[in-house]
Structures are given as C-alpha cells and as structure tokens.
C-alpha cells in the first residue's frame, strides 16, 4: 500500500524487481483530493498560476486560456517524451513509476486520485512503459523518462505487458481492463517533475552493493587463505585504532570467515618468515570498509529523498496555495551516485590485484604459474585476469563524476542541471562490473585452495568451493572453455548464493 508515509527501500526492490502489486491507502487518496481542490480553485482564478494556467520553463510567461488547458497537458507530455536510445531495464521503469506514485500520494502535487490510481494499476498489471536511455538531465526531474510513463497513462506510446511483449499502450491498458486518462490542469507537470529515475536506480544499487560488499569480504578471505597470508592483521584491537565502522565490520567478517582454517593454521607458527602481506591482502578491510561507509552515506541521502515530495510547483493544501521551488534539482542524489561509482571501482581494483597475485609464480608461494595444471600446455586462469583488468579499467572510466557537468537548457531558464540520471546509468554498469570482478576472484581463489590440498580451507570458504563445484565448475585440470565457468560464478555472486553459502555455515556477515 502506498500512503503519505515514504516507501521503504525494501518496498522499492519488491515492486521494481519482484513485480509486487501496488495500491493506494485511503489516507493518500484523501490527501490528493484536498490538494486537487486547491489546484482547481487556482485554475478557475483569473490570475495566472505556473504549471496550472501557464506554459512551462522558458514559456511560463504565457497565460493559457481555460479551453486550451487539456491540450496544454497533452502537449507537455508528448513533447517531453523525447527519449532516445536503448530501452531502460524493466526494474528501473517500475522503480521510477513507484517513486513518482509515492510523491503523488503525499498530497502536494495536485494530481487527481484517479490518475494516481492508474499508475498503481499499471504497476499491478505488470505494464511497463518503454523508456529510453538518453533524455534526462537530472533537473526539473527526470523529465523525459517520466514523460514516457505519463504518455502510457494517456493510452499513447509503447509499453511491454507482463509477458514482455511490446505493444501500443492503448492495447495493453484495454487488455488489463484499465482506462486511459485525459489529464487535467497541472497533472502533466505533476507526473514528470521528479528525481524518481535516479532515486530508483540509487535504491537498487544500494541493495546490490550491500550484498556485493559482503561478497568482497568472502573473496578477500579466500585470497588470504590461498596466498598463505596472515589473519592477524584483522584483529579487532588493531582495527579499533582507526575507528571507521565499515572497516571494523569488514575486518570482523574476515576474522569469522577465516576461523578454523587449516590453510591459515599451517603457517601460523614461529617458523613463519612472512613479515607482512601485500597491501591488497592486508588492507582489504580498509578499502572494503571505506566503501561500506560510502554506501551508508548514500543510504542516508536515499532515505531523505524517499521522504521527499518532489514537484514544481508544489501544492500546500493547508495554506491553499501553490508555490514554485527548486526541489527537483538532482544534486543530492547525483553526488552519491557518483561517489558510489568511485567506491565500486576501488573495490574492484583491489579484487583484481588479489587475483593477479595467484597467477604469478614469483608471488603465489608455491602455486603453479597461472594456476595451470600443466603450465605451458595449459594457460589456467591467465586470461580470466585479463577480463578482470578490462572491467576494472572501464569502471575507472565510469568513476569519473557525471554531476560535475552541466549543459544549460530551455533557453537558459534551466541553466544548471545535475546529470543525476547519467550518474545513475553509469553506476548500474559499475555495479554489474563489480559483480563480475568479484566472481573471477572467487573462481580463481577456489582453484588455488584446491591446489593447497591436503590443507583444508575454513568451513566458510570451503562452503563457497563446494558451491562452485556443485554448480558445474570443476576443480583444477586441463584447460576448459572458461567463459561459461565465469558466467556461472557471476550468477552465483549476483544472486547472493555465494553469501548465502557462507552465512549458512557461520551466520550473518556484517
């Protein structure tokens, strides 16, 4: 149920990814009705009111007569549905529709309840408007993406039904028993003026990163084991000397993951001549922890944005007025989207460095070159690291901030924009890249642990090796077609199966 209280991140994920149905509460319907009364009173007044009886943006100086206002709303949506390029993912479109509906339900936009109910109807019926990659500058909200969604409410444009079939919106609505709406005063603007696209992608990325950072700790633990490194540097008394919460959580995970490791125990005695390990092993909690703290900051920003009512102008029903504002500017969201891309790139970078150490016989402490069963005849995981390196290189490019750019639009009326949508789009690619880099580290570390037999890994890391082997990824042997094994490992990482395998043995990771 969508009410005047903000939706939670969990609800966003459920609707966007899992196809959960949506309905409006009676409280939200009443709030929208109160705001609508204010809009209709202003629409009937002789004094122009922006967004109700005027043009938009640089055309706001024109007063639109009553008989042309329905056309005004249609024209706004049609002209702003100007996206181009590939289709945006279904989960992103559902997320932005839900978040737009959440703002409408606050009663500060002036939307009619029946229009808002139609959005809920589309979501519940699994109807997804076609939204394109390019078109949003992240200021005045995600105008083009939201306009494509508003177009579908009018029975226009293209959508995909619950089966994924592409069809005209009018056909999909009719098949679902839904009637298109004729937009009234201000409704077109209320439907398109929000940060919902970039916010939805932020919430989804946060859910993914929560799981991937736990996976990064699992991968690091496997690398520490496989490279005969020490676990002493992860001791809580050492971490307490630098009290960053993310670092402490990551180090605690590593301690738990390595507990009862026969591999670690094998070189823990006084005869061990290893003074200290390479940074990529020793400093894993510092890097993973900094990323965790970055995620925590981004989650705080997301929580504030989820509690916001983004529109311009905004309706203040208690005071009976409508006021222009700048809350649609995407800067708060854009900044953290860029920040997360930086963190993701660095976690991927340190993962690639840990992987590379397995493959170099001068640094791997007794492992065969490239973990090949017959070096020279076989290449082992040599090219898997190339794949990691290519992804990490791309992620470093994607870490260049989008939010520092701005191109003026609307005849200089909108002269500073956030580029938050672009920041969100590149973050999605970064999150996918991180999952692939970590998957290759897990795959490589598991192979190295097999080479360490008869020494036994810890129960936690051993569970990951067992998961890989039971999923069709064989242990060391002659070279095989490696790409399918990488993709299997990627699916195990992205689905959370790697983390679940560990947590089934040692309990929840921090």
UniProtKB/TrEMBL annotation:
Arranged from A to Z, the UniProt key words for this protein are: Histidine metabolism, Lyase
Query: What's the main place this protein lives?
Result: cytoplasm
Q: Name one Pfam family in it.
A: Lyase_aromatic
Keyword Lipoprotein present in the record's keywords: the answer is no
Keyword GTP-binding assigned to the entry: answer is: no
Q: Gene3D superfamilies, per this entry?
A: Fumarase/aspartase (Central domain) (1.20.200.10), Fumarase/aspartase (N-terminal domain) (1.10.275.10)
Tell me which CDD domains the record gives: PAL-HAL
Record field: catalytic activity = L-histidine = trans-urocanate + NH4(+)
| Pathway assigned to this chain's UniProt record | Amino-acid degradation; L-histidine degradation into L-glutamate; N-formimidoyl-L-glutamate from L-histidine: step 1/3
Q: Where in the cell is it found?
A: Cytoplasm
Top EC class, one word: lyase
Give the EC number(s) listed in the UniProt record.
Answer: 4.3.1.3
Q: Which family does it belong to?
A: Belongs to the PAL/histidase family.
Name of the protein described by the UniProt record:
Histidine ammonia-lyase
């Amino acid at each position: 149920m969508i009410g005047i209280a903000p939706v939670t991140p969990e609800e966003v994920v459920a609707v966007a990814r899992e196809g959960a149905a949506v309905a409006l509460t009676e409280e939200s319907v009443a709030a929208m009705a109160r705001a609508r009364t204010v809009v209709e009173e202003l629409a009937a007044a002789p004094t122009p009111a922006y967004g109700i009886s005027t043009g938009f943006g640089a055309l706001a100086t024109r007063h639109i007569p009553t008989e042309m206002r329905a056309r005004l709303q249609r024209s706004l949506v049609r002209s702003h549905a100007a996206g181009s390029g590939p289709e945006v993912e279904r989960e992103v479109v559902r997320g932005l529709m839900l978040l737009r509906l959440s703002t409408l339900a606050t009663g500060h936009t002036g939307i009619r309840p029946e229009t808002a109910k139609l959005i809920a109807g589309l979501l519940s019926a699994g109807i997804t408007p076609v939204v394109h990659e390019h078109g949003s500058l992240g200021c005045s909200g995600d105008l083009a993406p939201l306009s494509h969604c508003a177009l579908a409410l009018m029975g226009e444009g293209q959508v995909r039904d619950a089966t994924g079939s592409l069809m005209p919106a009018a056909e999909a609505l009719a098949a679902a028993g839904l009637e298109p709406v004729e937009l009234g005063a201000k409704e077109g603007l209320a439907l398109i003026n929000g940060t919902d696209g970039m916010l939805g992608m932020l919430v989804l990325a946060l859910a993914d990163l929560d799981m991937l950072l736990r996976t990064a700790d699992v991968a690091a633990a496997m690398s520490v084991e496989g490279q005969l490194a020490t676990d002493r540097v992860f001791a809580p008394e050492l971490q307490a000397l630098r009290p960053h919460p993310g670092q402490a959580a990551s180090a605690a995970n590593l301690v738990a993951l390595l507990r009862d490791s026969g591999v670690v125990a094998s070189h823990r005695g006084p005869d061990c001549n290893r003074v200290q390990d390479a940074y990529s092993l020793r400093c894993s909690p510092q890097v993973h922890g900094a990323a965790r703290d970055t995620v925590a900051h981004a989650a705080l920003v997301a929580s504030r944005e989820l509690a916001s009512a983004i529109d311009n102008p905004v309706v203040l029903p208690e005071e009976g007025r409508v006021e222009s504002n700048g809350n649609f500017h995407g800067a708060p969201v854009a900044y953290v989207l860029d920040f997360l891309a930086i963190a993701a790139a660095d976690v991927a970078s340190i993962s690639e460095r840990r992987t590379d150490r397995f493959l170099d016989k001068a640094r791997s402490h007794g492992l065969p070159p490239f973990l090949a069963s017959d070096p020279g005849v076989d290449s082992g995981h040599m090219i898997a690291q190339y794949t990691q390196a290519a992804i990490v290189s791309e992620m470093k490019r994607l870490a260049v901030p989008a939010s520092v750019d701005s191109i003026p639009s609307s005849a200089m009326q909108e002269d500073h924009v956030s580029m938050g949508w672009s920041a969100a789009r590149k973050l999605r690619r970064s999150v996918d890249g991180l999952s692939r880099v970590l998957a290759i580290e897990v795959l490589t570390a598991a192979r190295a642990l097999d080479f360490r037999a008869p020494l036994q890994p810890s129960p936690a890391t051993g569970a990951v090796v067992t998961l890989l082997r039971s999923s069709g990824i064989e242990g060391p042997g002659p070279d095989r077609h490696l790409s399918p094994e990488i993709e299997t490992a990627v699916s195990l990482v992205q689905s959370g199966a790697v983390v679940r395998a560990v947590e089934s043995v040692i309990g929840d990771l921090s």
